[in-house]
Specification:
Layout: E1 3-9, E2 16-22, E3 46-47, E4 54-55, H1 78-86, H2 90-106, H3 110-130, H4 134-146, H5 150-166, H6 172-186
Antiparallel strand pairs: 1-2, 3-4
Helix pairs in contact: 2-3, 3-4, 4-5, 4-6, 5-6
The structure holds zinc ion.
Length: 198
Amino acid sequence: MRISRVSVSCSNCGASFETEIRVSASSGDFGLDGKPDNADFLPVIYDCPECGYAGYKIDGDKPKIPEAFAVNRDDPYDKYERALVLATTDDVRNHLLMEYTWQLEFDGKTAEALSVRERAVSQMERSLSIRPVIELAFIYIDFLRQLGRFDEAEETLNSISPIVTADADKRPKFYQLLLFLQRLIKDRDKAPHMISEV
Ligand SMILES: [Zn+2]
């Protein structure tokens, strides 16, 4: 993996600062919930040291910062919270909460990771109710499974099963994943599993 230092200028306050980005990180395998096999593969969250504007990019349009925007430099994960406050789409909120969960897991913070995993589930639920996307539904199901919420995981799996089964020839990987998840849920298995096992 190569680390490169880049100079970023904040579109909120205009401050320029340097930050490290990982240039050639890769992941050999992914969890059923989409988690990469190493933390270096997680995308960078830019974090302006001056005003606390945080997000996947902060050099675009000037953001609307809410009046009650709080910056807590004592919490190393606060940039995720700020990026969530400022996120404008469900897609971004989904990804932030997934990556926040995984980062906490990579750091060995099990209890914190579980509580953010719950938040990720609620967010994905909202997102799926507006725009049902099969890829996200699979991730949502695995987030539920790893929380031990097997009945809800099964219910959602059953709801996508007819579509995935009808498409089995066209998208065999989804079909295999469906069968694999069915078995894990039946076995009440909440351990992380990798795509390579499917
Ligand atoms: Zn700034």
